[in-house]
Amino acid sequence: MTSMKPTRVPLLPVAEAKAAADEAGVPDYMADLSIFQVLLNHPRLARTFNDLLATMLWHGALEPRLRELVIMRIGWLTACDYEWTQHWRVASGLGVTAEDLLGVRDWESYSGFGETERAVLAATDDVVRDGAVSAESWAACERELPGDTTVLIELVTAISAWRMVASILKSLQVPLEEGVASWPPDGVSP
Fold it and tell me: Cα–Cα distance between 34 and 149 in angstroms, integer?
């Protein structure tokens, strides 16, 4: 279980968050999440934020498994408990194995990933570390995700967006929802 530490911006009560979500055009079920209970203090921004992420989550060109590996790697590299914990549930629900999710912790040594996962995870590391995908990682992504610039654009956007999410979560000190255990499955953090 998590302990509720104070956020830098107050969490809206769920009923108030749902009303703000309805007014902003954000699905009201998002108001059950702590991140939206914080972001809905700025409804217009919450809507834009939701639209960007929802486009990639529900209408994306990038394979969902690859997207979730990217997000989990960012959660690990940035020590963002909320991102790791929430996307553990999302990725698991999409059928990504626990072994692969844990493999992102040290993907270079993990034998379960092929060249496509390695290219995408190297690009993720580049963006988190240097702010941009290196020429070497870009070439590997072009080789492994050929023929569709839409996928490459979405890959870079997904890496950048969820890197931003980790920064927002950590900067605003957004807590996990009440009763949600940290760092699944084993509680180990970076």
Answer: 34
